[in-house]
Specification:
The protein is an all-beta fold. Helix content is about 5%, strand content about 40%.
């Protein structure tokens, strides 16, 4: 489980928040008047290593950190009584001096931790993500070993209170304090009897409450008329960054498992690692679970109702290459459900060998060198609803013949019913398409398109085989949903097998584009979508998998303008997810998930004309296995806002490069509210930073504005400037935590300047490095830790 200040592991979703509302004006002069609206909530979990506390603070005022006295600034205070119910406790004897009672204070940015009481030589850990004017989220780990105690058993009790100090300016006292349980603030910090009580639950989590509640054996109750109401039509709560996705992701390393944990590691095989380090480096969170023996399993407990599963997994290659197929048992148990479903896995779309840096036409022979690109995914509908609180077990059963299975994570989603045919549309079945998964439907579909005359071309639920490119023109291609309508591009690496927009203003929506690409061939296309998108085209709720690119949006001709791509899933490609190029402008990619792409997940490449005014916003990018998560190569007035990028294998989370023959940068390019977690990697002998500003083929022109971005646990440097004229623009509200190398680094040979204000660097191997000495860091107010 990663300490990153995000509360993004599924286990955090398995316990409820407790409000922090009791207000204390004893210490403050403003009593909250200057921070009207400040509020907070917390939740807690536990495992064999320690107690974990997550705190979410909503504070519209200015956040201020007092490193010497956290309670005088914006901070979290933890009051912990490890052995809550010892003799004399309930009598309220004021036993704060007991050796099992602790108090900790952490500044809002987790840059300073003060152990007030009974914590001599103790250590706790914390990470935070903060936005001025909004508030912060803090994740705290308190190891049992550092408290001098062993892991508690289920049913044990502890005392706990969580308080939040609110202050928005330097001074002698905070404005006010709010706490979870203590209402009277009668010698609050010295009165454990007034704190709350937590009961450690058998499910390795606990509920925080003033009245201890414990049930050693969870039970299900069900009335004779028990029904399940599908939740797929519910609107998910919008995320502050990343896509608002209709599924919940569960990491294998955080589940109940009997296999072997692999990782954590960021070392690729070709850089001195081995197969296990390669698997870990390509894994989400840099960890996964391997099942090798019959009966070994990974077991997930569902936090929400679901009826489908996506598994990110590895099975071995065939001895001579080309992949194998194997099943994996999926056992579902819960109220009203008890079944086993065999999932069909293949390794035909993964397992490449040799040097990932030397070529993009990869060696598929296991004798060709070290392996990479190991992961693939499989997905399936269950055919029935699985209630929240059920268990879903992935198990190597008696008929599951792969030598091993590596499980990275699962996505569990409650998928709605197939969509109905829109009025006025024309169905491809009326032109002879069968959708039976066996018949070649290419000609029937193209004939339907040719006669649609601007109408909606409707694909009922089914699997439509394609052996050649579709050229739709100005029509709408609409399916019954990405889980129900599949266009299966069956000719593998054949050139020109895709849906070509060819400058038509059109819409593609609600379908799955399944390719058969097993290697990268830059001499052909074999993309899900291809060519320029014309004016005002829309791609909505389209799932693309096993193609070369998701969409190469360009290829000459008239430029794409005002394109909208939304709600899409692009996964397991051999090259880019979406690359807007050849003059594509004023286009938006938003609310999409891109995963395991073999080149930049989202890129603007300004070749053959300026690419201007494009926006990548609220996207979730995971496990880019070659190149960058987000990239701009030239162009003007482009934007990357509110994106989440995690676990890039060998390059950056955000790349800004004057390279690849691109036209120069111009205007103002904005990078606001992006979160980068475990980004950066080694490629071509270079250790890339999580954010890289690279004057490769010339200086960086225009202006770059970074506002409230967060860089966490980068493999190497957090932010890197390199090359002559690597002007970095303005950084305001940047937080960099736990970088493997420097938080901010200007490499040797670099020149230029950048301005930093309210930039906080914590926990990095080195705060700042200016290797060549020719780069200028201009400092503003609010910089901390560097």
């Amino acid at each position: 489980m990663a300490l990153n200040g995000v509360l993004n592991e599924p286990i955090w979703g398995e316990t409820a928040f407790t409000a922090i509302t009791n207000n204390d004006c004893n210490y403050g002069t403003g009593c909250g008047a200057t921070d009207t609206g400040a509020s907070a909530q917390f939740k807690a979990i536990w495992n064999s290593t320690g107690l974990w506390i997550g705190v979410v603070v909503n504070d519209p005022g200015t956040l201020y950190a007092d490193a010497a006295a956290p309670w005088n600034g914006s901070a979290v205070e933890i009051f912990l009584d490890v052995n809550h119910m010892r003799a004399g406790y309930n009598a309220g004897t004021g036993d704060y001096d007991d050796p099992n009672t602790y108090q900790f204070g952490i500044t809002y940015n987790a840059n300073s931790i003060l152990e007030y009481h009974n914590a001599t030589a103790r250590t706790i850990m914390a990470a935070s993500t903060a936005t001025q004017g909004t508030g912060y989220t803090m994740e705290i780990e308190i190891p049992w070993a550092n408290l001098g105690v062993t892991e508690p058993t289920a049913g044990s009790l502890s005392g706990l209170d969580v308080a939040v100090d609110v202050a928005n300016a330097a001074g002698t006292a905070r404005d006010h304090q709010i706490a979870a349980y203590n209402a009277g603030f009668n010698a609050f910090d010295q009165a454990p009897a007034e704190w709350g009580t937590i009961a450690y639950q058998a499910c390795n989590s606990f509920t925080a409450t003033n009245t201890p509640v414990y049930s050693a054996t969870p039970t299900f109750t069900m009335s004779p008329t028990f029904t399940i109401t599908p939740l797929a039509s519910a609107t998910p709560t919008p995320a502050p960054y990343g896509a608002t996705l209709p599924y919940t992701e569960y990491e294998a390393e955080n589940a109940n498992y009997t296999g072997t944990l692999i990782g954590p590691s960021t070392t690729m095989w070709e850089h001195g690692g081995n197969l296990n380090t390669e698997i870990a480096a390509e894994s989400s969170g840099r960890e996964a679970v391997q099942l090798t023996n019959q009966g070994q399993y990974v077991r997930f407990t569902t936090g929400n109702q679901c009826n489908s599963i996506v598994v990110r997994e590895i099975i071995p290659d065939a001895p001579g290459g080309g992949g194998i197929t194997a099943t994996l048992s999926c056992v579902v148990n819960g109220p009203g459900v008890n079944f086993t479903q065999e999932l069909n896995l293949s390794s035909a779309y993964s397992w490449d060998y040799g040097n990932i840096e030397a070529s993009t036409n990869y060696n598929k022979n296991p004798g060709g060198g070290t392996p990479f690109h190991l992961y693939d995914e499989t997905h399936a509908l269950f055919g029935q609803e699985v209630p929240a609180g059920s268990t879903i077990t992935l198990q190597k059963g008696a008929n599951d013949t792969a030598a091993y299975y590596v499980i990275d994570f699962v996505d569990l989603e409650d998928v709605g019913a197939p969509m109905a045919q829109p009025g006025g549309s024309i169905s491809v079945t009326s032109y002879g398409a069968t959708g039976n998964g066996n018949t070649d439907d290419t000609n029937a579909i193209q004939n339907c398109i040719n006669n649609a005359a601007g109408r909606i071309v409707w694909f009922p639920q089914g699997n439509y085989r394609l052996s050649n490119q579709l050229n739709p023109g100005a029509v709408t291609l609409a399916g019954a949903g990405m889980w129900y309508t599949t266009l299966h591009q069956t000719n593998g690496n054949a050139p020109n097998l895709e849906i070509g927009l060819n400058n038509a203003s059109m819409t593609v929506e609600n379908m799955f584009l399944q390719g058969e690409v097993t290697n990268r061939n830059d001499g052909g296309d074999a993309n899900g979508l291809d060519s320029q998108g014309g004016n005002n085209s829309v791609v909505r709720n389209v799932w693309i998998e096993h193609t070369k690119c998701g969409w190469w949006c360009g290829n000459g001709g008239s430029a794409t303008n005002n394109l909208l791509v939304t709600g899409c899933r692009i996964r397991d490609t051999y090259a880019d997810g979406i690359n807007i190029t050849n003059g594509g402008s004023n286009s938006t990619v938003t609310q999409c998930n891109l995963r395991n792409t073999g080149d930049d997940s989202l890129a603007v490449w300004s070749q053959d004309g300026g690419d201007n005014g494009n926006t990548f916003s609220y996207n979730t990018i995971q496990n880019t296995w070659r190149a960058d998560g987000l990239a701009f190569y030239g162009g003007s007035n482009n934007n990357m806002n509110n994106n989440l990028v995690k676990d890039t294998l060998d390059q950056s989370g955000i790349m800004i490069e004057q390279g690849f023959g691109a036209t120069g940068f111009g205007g103002t390019n904005n990078f606001n509210n992006n979160v980068l977690i475990r980004c950066g990697g080694t490629f071509g002998g270079t250790n890339y930073g999580a954010v890289q500003l690279w004057a490769n083929q010339g200086g960086l022109g225009g202006t770059f504005s970074f506002q409230n971005d967060s860089v966490q646990n980068s493999t190497f440097d957090g932010v890197v400037f390199t090359g002559g004229g690597a002007n970095g623009g303005t950084f305001n509200g940047l937080t960099i935590s736990n970088s493997g190398n420097s938080g901010i680094n200007a490499w040797g040979g670099s020149s230029g300047s950048a301005y930093f204000a309210n930039t906080v660097v914590t926990g990095s191997n080195g705060s700042t490095n200016n290797s060549g000495g020719a780069f200028t860091f201009n400092r503003g107010a609010g910089d901390v830790g560097w």
